[in-house]
Amino acid sequence: MNTDLPDTADYFPIERGRYDVSPGLFQFGADFGNGARDQKKLEARREDLTKYYRIERFARAESRSLASFIVTRLTKEYPKYFSMTWAGETLELACGLTGERLLFDDDYNLVETESASPEVTPVYVSALDALASQVQEDLTVISARSGGEHWVSGIHACAPNYWSPAEKIGQSFADVHAPVAGMQQTNRAQQAMVDAMIFKGPYVRFTWGLTTDRYLNHHPNPAPGHDPALWHGRRFSLQAPQLYLRTERQVSWGFPEIGCALFTIRTYLTNCATLRKDPNKKNNLIAA
Question: What b/e sequence results for 231-249 when a residue is b if at least 16 CB atoms lie within 10 Å of its CB, and e otherwise?
Fold first, then answer.
């Protein structure tokens, strides 16, 4: 479906000229850029949904609240692309970007999908799956219970950055981030981080790294038909140099009444050749 979209946002989280893994939380609403969309998510679903979508101890109350929240945000913030109507106990969400109409019951269970184009493959298996497929962001849900227990209860990530949803589902904050260099101090404060995500905020933060390709999806297991060496990237060629700044804009929304948080990840790629034209950005990237 052809739909005019605004230009992609331009984020540069290296303003201090150094790499760090501090929490980097900004109160949501801070002004950083603009917005847009990519078309690779449905391609990943077609490959293998279980590779990119996992749930574990994902409560009915969480599914209902998150679906209601996402539908409300989409229709309020992007009325040009999303609209909802109630017909008795059935909610219809019209999705202008995909041309789909998602039908939910009054408990926000997905009951039917209607589309003018060929039906999405595989069919949506839940409200979270269907709604995540309408937007560019990857979605993660963190659940918590009294006594300090918390875990990743839902993941819909079609652009993972060298990690697998199957490996992360059910893990704690510290376990999820254990492979990340320099995260020891933040991981020791994992309960404070989880509490902030659920009971405070919303927050926005940024992470970044360098890559030698334009793939958004860097699941550890290459997609069929892709050269594993090229898929994994990070192979710089002096003969044909390509280097990109990969930035993740991460937003957390808390739901204290049910003890969970929604964590969204939107990935952006910026050609480092363009950063060279801006002396400040070039120098900060070199210093980092």
Answer: bbbeeeeeeeeebbbbbbb
Burial label for 87, CB within 10 Å (0-12, 13-18, 19+), is exposed
Q: What is the CA radius of gyration of the chain?
A: 19
**Cis amide linkage into residue 224, ω under 30° from 0:** no
Contact criterion met (CB below 8 Å) for 14 and 281: yes
Taking alpha carbons only, the member of 157, 170, 142 closest to residue 49 is 157
Q: What is the DSSP string of 174-233?
A: HHHHTTSTT-HHHHHTHHHHHHHHHHS--EEEEEEEEESS--S-B-SSPPTTS-HHHHH-
User: Are 141 and 36 spatial neighbours (Cβ–Cβ below 8 Å)?
Assistant: no
Predicted confidence (pLDDT) per residue in 123-136, tens digit = 999 999 999 999 99
**Block residue for tokens 């070199």:** 286
Q: How far apart are CA 280 and CA 15, in angstroms?
A: 8
Beta strand 53-55 with 150-156 is antiparallel
CA quadruple 100, 106, 108, 112: dihedral positive or negative? negative
**Domain ranges, ordered by start, for the chain:** 26-287
Helix, strand and coil in the chain, % to nearest 5: 25, 25, 45
Residue 13 has pLDDT above 70, yes or no: no
